[in-house]
Amino acid sequence: MPRITVTVDEITYEEEVEPRLLLVHLLRDRLGRTGTPIGCDTGNCGACTVMLDGVSVKSCSVLAVQADGSEVVTVEGLSSGQEWHPMQRAFHAEHALQCGYCTPGMIMAAIDLVRNDPDPSEEAVRRGLEGNLCRCTGYTNIVRAVRRGAQEMAGRHD
Amino acid sequence: MTEQLDAGLVAERIAESDQLSAPSGDREIGRARRRKEDARLVTGRTTWTDNIQLPGMLYVTFLRSPMAHARITRVDTSAARARPGVVAALSGRDLADEQGSLPCAWPVTEDIVIPDHPPMAVEEVRYVGEAVACVVATDRYAAADALEEIEVDYEPLEAVVDMTEALTEGSPKVHETGNRAFTWRFAQGDVGAAFRDAPIVVERDYVQQRLIPTAMEPRAVVATTDGDSFTLYSATQIPHVLRVMLAMTTGIPEHRLRVVAPDVGGGFGSKLQVTAEEVLALLLTRRIGRPVKWTESRSEGNLTVHHGRDQLQRIRLAAERDGRLRAVQVELLADMGAYLMLVTPGVPLLGAFMYNGIYKMDAYDFTCTGVFTTKMPTDAYRGAGRPEATFAIERAMDELAHELGLDPVEVRRRNWIAHEEFPYTTVCGLTYDSGNYEAATDRALDLFGYDTLREEQARRRAEGDPIQLGIGVSTFTEMCGLAPSRVLGSLSYGAGGWEHASVRVLPTGKVEVVTGTSPHGQGHETAWSQIASDALGVPFEDVSVLHGDTAISHKGMDTYGSRSLVVGGIAVLSACEKVKDRARELAAHMLEASAEDVEFADGSFRVRGTSQGRTIQEVALAAFAAHDLPDGVEPGLDAETTFDPDNFSFPHGTHLCAVEVDTETGGTTIRSYVAVDDVGAVVNPLIVEGQVHGGIAQGIGQALFEEAIYDAEGNLLTTTMADYLVPTALDLPEFVTDRTETPATSNPLGVKGVGEAGTIASTPAVVNAVVDALRPYGVRDVRMPCTPERVWRAINSGTSGASGVSEASEGSHGSGAPQSSQGSRASEGFEGGGR
After folding, report:
1. What is the pLDDT of residue B516?
2. Span of the secretion signal (chain A) (predicted)?
C-alpha cells in the first residue's frame, strides 16, 4: 500500500493507504478529523470542502494519495485556541447556519472565495458558493455572513 | 425586515446586528440572541452519528433491489461471507424470524389496509432500493466490496407507478389486497346545494409532484449492546417515539433500550420515521454482539429516505359573481408508495381541514384515497399535507380571480376572515384563535411595491416584451403546534401530542432544562434558554438545555409539525413556573414570611414592601443543603410538567413573489420575494427569520426545481444531487421578510410556531407568479416544477390556443395543459398527471 505524508491542521501524519481511499475518509475514519462531514457521493454538495495547499477542494473528490506531501486545513484547524476565524464569527453573527451540516464546507469555500475576491458583491458570493448546498437557510444569511466575514478578514471591521 | 444588502450597507448591517445582540432591556424573550449551538457547529466539534466510533465497531452495507417489483427466488451470500474482513452476510430470510414489521402509527380508517412491511425483503420487493441483503465488515470499503459478491435471483413482476392506473380493474397489484389503501372523507354543510346553481364554478387539477426531503446529513445509525441493554444512535427527529416503536417492533424491552439523537443535520420530516435500517442495526448488534454502524450514501438516501407530497388534486370552488366563496370540494389521490410507514396515511389528512385556507364558506367536502404503488413510501415532508392544501386553494383563488376579472388580492379580501371576527370557527370546525390577514397583506403589498409592479407588468405586456413579469400572491394559514392529544385520538393516530419538560436549578444556581423536543437545526438550546432565563430570572448563559437522549430526557414526543415551541416551549415555561412556586415556598420559610407575601422579580424573592430577599440561586443552595426545609418540602429545586395543548395554533401570512419569465427560453427568475408572516409572539427574531428564509427556499424548490422522477419500470431517475435539484445560492434571491404580531390566545407565550410557514406559503406564490406572467399567452397552469421546458411548452401551446394538449404529447415530464375555462379538464379525469 502506498505510504503518504500529509499535514492536517498542523499535525503531520504518515499513513499507509489504499490507492482508492478518499481524502475525506482518511480525515474522518483514520485521523479522527470528523469536523468535515460528507453530504453526497457525486461532488455536488460541498459539505466536505477543505483547503488543500491553500485552495478549497471537495475532499470526497480527492484521493488520499493525491494529498501526499500536501497541507490540509479543515474547519477544525481554522480557530487558534478560543479565537475563531473571522468567517466563523461572521456565520455565527449572521445566523448563517441552522443544522450546521453544510457549515464546515460553506466556511472553507467562503474563505477561499474571499481570498480571490476580498470584497465580493452579493452576486459574487452566490456564484462563488453555487457548489455548496444548504437546505436550511435559503442562503440569505449565508450571503450576509460571507460579506461580513470578508470585511472582517480585510480588517475593515472587527 | 431585511434590506437589500448593497456593498455600502454591509457596515450598517453589522452595526445593526451588533446592536441586536447587545443588552436591550430585561427580557430575553424577543431578543435576537446568537445561538448557543453554533460554537460546536462552526468549529467542527460536532457529534453527527457517523462521527461516532466505538471500539470493535463494524460497518453495515445493504444490497438493495434494482427491481421495482419482483419475487426473490434466491439469495446467496456465501461468497460475500468468505471475503476478508467480513463478519456476516445475511439475507431477509436469515432475519425473517426476528425482524418483525415496520410500524404504521396512523390507521386513518377502520378498513385501511396496512401491509406487512419487513425491514429486509424476504419474498418480494416492491420498490427500487428495498434492502434484500446486508454485509457486516470491519471497514466501509471491505463491506462495499463484499456486497458485490452477493447473488440474488429475481422473478420480475409488473411495476405499478401510476395512481390512476393502479385503481383501475385489472391493474397489477402491489399487494395481494389490491392497490387501494383507504378512502377517507370529511364533509360539512350542503355541498350539493352550494354547487347546484352556483354562478361561478372553478375546477382545476393540480399535481403535487413527489419530492425528496434532502436533509444535508444523510441518515446514519450506530447500534451497540453490552449483552443486556442496547443503545441506538440515530440521525432521527424522534428519539422518544423511536424507542417505543423499536421496542414494539424488535421485542427488545423498552427499559433496556436507549435511543440517542446526537447532532442531527436537518430532517424536514424525513427523519420522522422508524426505518428499516434502525431495526436492522439493532438486530445485527444483538446477533453479532459488537457495535455496528450504517451510514447511507446520498444516492442510497434518495432511493430510500421516505419521499414527500405526490398527490393528484382536484379542487372545485363554487362562488358568487362577486367572488365570495360558497363551497370547496376536494378529491385527492395520495401516493402511499409500496408500504405504509410511520404516518404515511395521515399526511394528506393533515391537509384535510386546510383546503378552505383563510376563507369563509358554507360547505366543504374532502375525500382522499390512498394508493399503493411500487415506489418508495411517502411520509411527512416539511408541512405534510398543509402545503398541498394551501397550494390548491391559493392556486384556485387566482383562477377564480381571473375568471371574474378581479385582482387576486381583492378576491382574497372578499373572502377572508376579518380580524374582528376572531376567534372564528371555520367550515372545517377548526377554531382559528387569532389573526390579522389585513395587516399582514397590507404590509406585504407595501414592501413589495405591488402597484408599481402591476404597472410595470402592464407596460411589458403592452410592449410585447419577451421578458414578462408575473406577480404571485399567497395568503396562507396552517394548523400547527401538533397537537391536542384528544384530536389526534379522534383521527385514529397512535399517540398523543403533548410535550414534556423538566427544569432543575442546581446547587450553584445554574439551570438545566431537559426537553422532550429533539432539535436538529431549530435552535432549541438557545430559545429554551431564553424562556427559562426570563421565567427564573437567571442569566441566559446560566441555562443549559439537554435533549435527544432517552436516558437524559426520559419523556417526550420530539420535533415535527411546528410543534416544538408551541407545545415543548410551553412545557419549559410551565416547569419553570412550578420551580418558582417551590422556590417561593422555601424562600418564604427562609425569610420567615408567608408565601403569599413573597413576590418574585429579577431573580429574587422579596417580602412585599421590604428590602428583605433571597435570590433564586440562594434558595437553590438551601434546597440542596436541605438543613432547614419546611414540612413537606423535598430537597432540591426542580420540577417537571407535561403540556397538552387545547387547540392547534394558526400562523398566517402573506407572501408575494415577482418572477421574470423569458418567453423565448422558458427560463424563470425570481426578481423579488416578500414574506410577511404572523407567527404570534417571537422568542428569537433571528431564529424566526432563519426558519422563514429556509422554508421559502424549500417551497421555491418545489415550485421551480425539484421532482423525484420514476420511469415506467419504477426506476428512480433522480438518485443524485446532480439529478434532483436542490436550490443553490444562485437560484434564489435575497428574501425580504417582515412580521405582524397577533399573539396566539391558546398558550401563555402567545406563540404559534414557524417551522413550516415558509414552505407552505411560498410554493403557490411562485407558481401563481409564473402563471400570471403567462396569462397573455392563454396559459392557466404550469405543472410543478416549472422548469424552462414546461414553461416554454405552456407558452407555445397556450399561444396556439390548443387547450387540450395532453401529457403524452409532452413526454413523461410534460407540463399541465393550459385550461381554457372552468371545468374544461373534467373529462380528462385524473389521468393528466398520473405519472
Report:
1. 98
2. none
Kindly report, residue by residue over A122-133, the tens digit of the pLDDT.
999 999 999 999
Domain B50-157+219-295: top CATH class = alpha beta
* Measured distance CA(B572)–CA(B69) in Å, rounded: 48
Report the chain A residue with the minimal C-alpha distance to residue B141: A21
Q: What is the DSSP letter of B11?
A: H
**One fold for B50-157+219-295 and B308-482+648-833:** no
Task: Say yes or no for a CB contact (<8 Å) between B42 and A100.
Answer: yes
If pLDDT is split at 50, 70 and 90, which confidence band does B548 have?
very high
Cβ proximity of B255 and B247 under 8 Å: no
B668-678 vs B736-739, strand pairing mode? parallel
Q: What are the structural domains of chain A?
A: 3-77 (3.10.20.30), 86-153 (1.10.150.120)
Residue of A99, A122, A158 to mutate when probing chain B, most B C-beta within 10 A: A99
A-interface mutation test, from B13, B138, B216, B731, most A Cβ less than 10 A away: B216
- Has residue B819 got a pLDDT over 60? no
User: Is residue B604 exposed (0-12), middle (13-18) or buried (19+ Cβ within 10 Å)?
Assistant: middle
In chain B, % of residues over pLDDT 70: 92
Q: What is the CATH topology of the domain spanning B498-643? A: Aldehyde Oxidoreductase; domain 4 (3.30.365)
Task: Count Cβ atoms below 10 Å from residue B155 Cβ, excluding itself.
Answer: 11
DSSP string, B754-814: -TTHHHHHHHHHHHHHHHHHHGGGT----PSS--HHHHHHHHHHHHTT-TT--SGGG-TTP
- What was the pLDDT predicted at A81? 77
Q: Give the mean pLDDT of chain A.
A: 96
Residue of A nearest to B721 (CA): A44
Question: Can you tell me the mean pLDDT for B23-46?
Answer: 90
* The total number of residues written for chain B in this structure: 835
Across the strands, what pairs with B234?
B221
pLDDT at A79: 87
What is B308-482+648-833's CATH number?
3.30.365.10
User: Cβ A39–B218 below 8 Å, yes or no?
Assistant: yes
Percentage of chain B exceeding pLDDT 90: 92
Q: Do A144 and B5 touch (CB under 8 A)?
A: yes
Q: Is the pLDDT of residue B215 over 80?
A: yes
pLDDT digits (tens, 9 = 90+) for B367-407: 999 999 999 999 999 999 999 999 999 999 999 999 999 99
CB contact under 8 A, A40 and B721: yes
Strand order in the sheet with B511-515: B543-546, B511-515, B499-505, B637-643
The strand ranges marked E within B338-437 are 363-372, 424-425, 431-432
Long-range contacts of B413-417 (CB under 8 A, 24+ apart): B413/B438, B413/B441, B414/B322, B414/B323, B414/B324, B415/B323, B415/B324, B415/B325, B415/B358, B415/B359, B415/B360, B415/B361, B416/B358, B416/B359, B416/B360, B416/B475, B417/B358, B417/B359, B417/B360
pLDDT tens digits for B637-691? 999 999 999 999 999 999 999 999 999 999 999 999 999 999 999 999 999 999 9
Quick one: CA dihedral B480, B482, B487, B488, positive or negative?
positive
